[in-house]
């Protein structure tokens, strides 16, 4: 029943997205062009990938506030490794490992240390940021090989690599969440953690794995961001946690845990991306953009609650 | 669902109200600033708007929410390229990070004018990008002005602290370099500490408070912008040392001028952001007429002190 309701919600968001696109199309001739749509997808890809990890975490009724800082740390580690001439593939793996280790630390603190997720990841948020700044002396690391930059500049049939990567991440995540043990336990832990513990499942292990996964996806985002800007910045990713949480919540995932879909999160991320793009195209000031995005978050969750009341 | 619809309608109504009312046919010049919640860039915007009105061109001004947000700035530029603006004026949020965005504008055939913050030349050239010109004040010169002023006031002897901007920012690095180059000529002047407060007022307060703890003998402070200087001024007041420390900032913000009048600050290097905005739009128009422009267009720079403020006031009367 829960999952049907969640699909209903993401369908509602999808309708909202379609409406927004329609309205932008009537307002500006620059919106509905192939190059602009690719543009939007590319701009959304980084937050969308982070939001996948966030969705897993939030479905377990957790939260991860450290994603922005973990992106910065993975990014500068990646940048420094690349700068010493390590091949991009190995450097990328090191970035993923960095993100994974941060996420793992979060997970261990939460499941074995019994810290509230909010506190553990708030600590990691500051810790990873500090490490990134210390590691680089506060300076960005810039200028990488064209081979590495292909991650961002490459394309297949005019579809840029970041968009393809986003697609792969979403399809895989959808499969993991729906068809694997990890996915089923993710929902179950968020629904009723105690019941899952009593049924003999190693909840701590799975919870830790979910945070590790979230951290690793931050590593993926760090690779994309570093390639896109041709620079790894210790100050990168500030406030990304809020965008990722917003995309997840707009997509119908409940902060109380136990429900949510990967597809919904994609729609949520796209809604934010299209809104930003559209307001840019229309020349609306950044102040109004913030008001618009804030309103969308509130309205989306409000509608979510109304729908749930009705289904009861 | 009807909530979503009404929201979207509301948003888009607001959006449509903000569309430029000038005729669609005239050329569009975009000015992308680092952020619109900083007085410096608001001044720049005003200068640009006046010039655009005078030249009869449409001007679109956009900026990210945070000054550091290089990624958001890139998105804004990508989106402006989609709207096919005729010229792009940018104050880069990152000297190197801006390069991929410049390449995209180059590819779309849109001339790029860099304002206020230099692009890293090496990164730009190795990537094969090009910009039409750089319009900005000479930060190195500004740093030297501040250094000379402090050295004079200290009579070549004493302890100096520095609040840096964000490391790696061309603006901060050049100001520091200019300041240090003058101070280092004086053997009896010691720089006791040089730390970043990330351009921010609250961090300026905290960092300088800490510096005062470890170096109570500090006699002069150079802050790479006024916001940090103003933060430090509060820290100095909290330590009951107002007037004992020579504080020199950069930007000559309205608040800083008040602080100078009240003897809380000694001086501030003044840039002319509205001049930058004006020159950016005027040169963009020149470019659109097919004429060439010089590669560097310097904007005047000066030092505001209590004396200069009094002179300014008496001239107004």
Question: Can you describe this structure?
Answer:
The complex is a heterodimer of chains A (312) and B (317). Chain A is an all-alpha fold. Chain A has a single domain (2-311), classed as ABC transporter involved in vitamin B12 uptake, BtuC. Chain A is 78% helix and 3% strand. In chain A, β2 (155-156) and β3 form a beta hairpin. Chain A starts with a helix and ends with a helix. Chain B folds into 2 domains: 24-131 and 273-299, Rossmann fold; 139-270, Response regulator (Rossmann fold). In chain B, 49% of the residues lie in helices and 20% in strands. Chain B has helices at residues 2-17, 39-55, 70-82, 99-107, 121-127, 139-154, 170-183, 201-214, 226-238, 254-261, 273-288, 306-316; strands spanning 28-35, 58-64, 87-90, 112-115, 133-137, 158-164, 189-196, 220-223, 246-250, 267-270, 296-299, 302-305. In chain B, α2 (39-55) packs parallel to α11. The radius of gyration of chain B is 21 Å and the shape is elongated. The interface between A and B is large, with 57 and 52 residues.
Could you outline the blueprint of secondary structure elements for this entry?
The complex is a heterodimer of chains A (312) and B (317).
Chain A: H1 2-27, H2 34-59, H3 67-83, H4 88-111, H5 117-136, E1 141-142, H6 146-153, E2 155-156, E3 159-160, H7 161-179, H8 181-198, H9 203-229, E4 231-232, H10 240-250, H11 262-281, H12 286-311
Antiparallel strand pairs in A: 1-4, 2-3
Chain B: H1 2-17, E1 28-35, H2 39-55, E2 58-64, H3 70-82, E3 87-90, H4 99-107, E4 112-115, H5 121-127, E5 133-137, H6 139-154, E6 158-164, H7 170-183, E7 189-196, H8 201-214, E8 220-223, H9 226-238, E9 246-250, H10 254-261, E10 267-270, H11 273-288, E11 296-299, E12 302-305, H12 306-316
Helix pairs in contact in B: 2-11, 3-4, 6-7, 8-9
């Amino acid at each position: 029943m829960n999952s049907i309701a969640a699909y209903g919600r993401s369908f509602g968001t999808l309708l909202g997205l379609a409406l927004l696109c329609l309205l932008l199309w009537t307002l500006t001739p620059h919106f509905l062009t192939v190059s602009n749509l690719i543009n939007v997808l590319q701009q959304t890809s980084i937050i969308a990938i982070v939001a996948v990890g966030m969705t897993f975490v939030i479905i377990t009724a957790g939260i991860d506030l450290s994603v922005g800082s973990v992106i910065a740390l993975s990014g500068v580690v990646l940048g420094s490794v690349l700068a010493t001439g390590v091949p991009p593939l190995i450097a990328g793996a090191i970035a993923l490992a960095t993100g994974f280790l941060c996420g793992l630390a979060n997970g261990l603190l939460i499941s074995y240390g019994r810290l509230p997720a909010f506190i553990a990841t708030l600590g990691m948020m500051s810790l990873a940021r500090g490490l990134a700044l210390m590691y680089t002396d506060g300076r960005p690391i810039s200028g990488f090989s064209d081979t590495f930059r292909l991650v961002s500049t490459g394309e297949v049939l005019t579809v840029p690599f970041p968009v393809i990567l986003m697609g792969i991440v979403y399809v895989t995540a959808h499969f993991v969440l729906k068809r694997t043990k990890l996915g089923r336990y993710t929902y179950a832990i968020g629904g009723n953690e105690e019941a899952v513990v009593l049924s003999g499942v190693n909840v701590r292990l799975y919870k830790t794995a979910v945070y590790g996964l979230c951290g690793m996806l931050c590593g993926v985002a760090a690779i994309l961001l570093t390639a896109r800007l041709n620079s790894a910045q210790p100050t990168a990713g500030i406030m990304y946690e809020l965008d990722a949480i917003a995309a997840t919540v707009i997509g119908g995932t409940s902060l109380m845990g136990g429900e949510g879909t990967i597809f919904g999160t994609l729609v949520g991320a796209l809604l934010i991306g299209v809104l930003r793009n559209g307001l840019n195209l229309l020349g609306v000031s950044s102040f109004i953009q913030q008001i618009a995005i804030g309103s969308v978050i509130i309205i989306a969750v409000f509608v979510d609650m109304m729908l749930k009341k009705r289904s009861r | 669902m009807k909530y979503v619809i009404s929201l979207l309608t509301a948003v888009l109504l607001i959006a449509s109200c903000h569309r430029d009312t000038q005729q669609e046919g005239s050329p569009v010049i975009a000015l992308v600033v680092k952020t619109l919640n900083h007085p410096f860039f608001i001044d720049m915007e005003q200068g640009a708007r006046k010039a655009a009105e005078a030249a009869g061109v449409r001007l679109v001004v956009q900026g990210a929410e945070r000054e550091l947000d290089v990624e958001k700035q890139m998105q804004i530029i990508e989106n402006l390229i989609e709207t096919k603006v005729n010229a792009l004026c940018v104050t880069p949020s990152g000297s190197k990070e801006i390069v991929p965005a410049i390449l995209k504008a180059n590819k779309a055939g849109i001339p790029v004018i860099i304002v206020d913050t230099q692009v890293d030349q090496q990164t730009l050239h190795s990537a094969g990008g090009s910009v039409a010109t750089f319009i900005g004040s000479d930060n190195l010169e500004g740093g030297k002005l501040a250094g000379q002023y402090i050295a004079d006031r200290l009579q070549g002897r004493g302890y100096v602290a520095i609040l840096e901007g964000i490391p790696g920012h061309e603006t901060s690095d050049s100001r520091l370099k200019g300041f240090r180059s003058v101070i280092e000529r004086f053997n009896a002047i010691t720089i006791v500490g040089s730390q970043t407060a990330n351009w921010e007022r609250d961090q300026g307060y905290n960092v300088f408070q800490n510096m005062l703890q470890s170096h109570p003998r500090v006699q002069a402070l150079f802050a790479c912008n006024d916001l940090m200087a103003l933060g430090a001024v509060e820290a100095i007041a909290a330590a009951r040392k107002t007037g004992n420390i020579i504080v020199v900032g950069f930007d000559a913000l309205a608040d800083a001028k008040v602080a100078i009048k009240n003897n809380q600050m000694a001086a501030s290097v003044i840039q002319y952001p509205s001049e930058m905005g004006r020159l950016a739009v005027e040169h963009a128009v020149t470019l659109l007429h097919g004429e060439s422009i010089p590669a560097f267009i310097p904007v005047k720079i000066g030092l505001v002190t209590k004396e200069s403020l009094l002179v300014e006031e008496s001239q107004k009367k």
